[in-house]
Write a structure and sequence with these properties.
38% helix; alpha/beta; Helicase, Ruva Protein, domain 3; 8 helices; Rossmann fold; elongated
Amino acid sequence: MQRQLTLDLGTPPPATFDNFFAAGNHELIARLRELEGALAAGPVADRTFYVWGEPGSGRSHLLQALTHEANGHARYLGPQSALNAFGFDPRVTLYAVDDCDRLSPAQQIALFNLFNEVRAYPASALVATGNDAPLALTVREDLRTRLGWGLVFHLQPLSDEAKASVLKHAARERGIVLADDVPAYLLTHFRRDMPSLMALLDELDRFSLEQKRAVTRALLRTMLQQTGRAALLVPVSAPEETPADPNGPESGPAAPDNDPTRFK
């Protein structure tokens, strides 16, 4: 009988600027790192930021890093936040607003008002994120205009090489002995967005501790088999076509690629 494995992943390392792989986003990271210190030093010209990028590009990581390193003077907001959390508080230096495109109508109004309050109070700043550029956001027109007023950054996606480097760095942070071929294998067989890859890495970490084995491709296969997910081993590359039998019936058109493990 197949064993059901219970995975207690524990607490992953906190999101920081140090464990964010900057790639082509060095200017954005530098500005966010310096923002709180600049506010404390005196007037700052650019105090509102909008950061956009595809899901899994690291938007939430950056906001969590901003609040984590802000010495208790930051507030993290998102669709899950209570409406009154969007109220302005002069004791808060940094407001980090995640997933603007998913805010409710009432939250959008509250964010619009918060934006205006921050603009009027020189000792505070606001950093918001979304899945698209300001002009393409599906939010209130007045809020969309405000989000485009400040500095706008497009979070550049990571290359496969950079994703492999992130996985190796994350493994080192967790004390994982990761076989050299595991990152490339993950990138060609599983979902390629970083949250999914990091979740799988944490899962592998827990399983390797239970099995007292290093994290290798063989261990990965064993874990997926024991958790009933061996189908995930289907590679993302297209299978080779089988030549038609010249003596057999004529082949019909190829079936559409509906394999759910390909994660297009």
